[in-house]
Predict the structure.
Amino acid sequence: MRSNKGRDTSPELALRRAVHARGLRYFVSRRPLKELRRTADLVFPRVKVAVFLDGCFWHGCPVHHTVAKRNADFWAGKVDGNRRRDLETTARLRDAGWRVIRIWEHEDPQEAAEQVEAAVRGREPAASTTGPSPEGTSPERKIV
């Protein structure tokens, strides 16, 4: 477990490079709300946009999630808890006036950066989506 990084993963670095190349500046691994013990991968506090880059295994991607071969019950509970926490985090941030973007680690960083830029610059397309829904019911997630 020690080798699993909490930040600066390859997908996260790729997304940060793509967002930075679009001229956007952000905070890394920061709490959007001080009272909420959850950190977003990218935070744009002035425009209240929080970006979470979710790992396929840890957050139960409906496309790439695999069932653990050892300790399957433990890991199923862990992933289920992560999904519930993701839903709660999104709801609490939304209630506080934030836009939340959730991106799966397997998504193209350039496409994800485009969605982030649209949200930050305030020109979000009506049908913009990134990644699966936190509920796991839809293969797409909308910016909220």
About this structure: The radius of gyration is 15 Å. The longest strand covers residues 49-54.
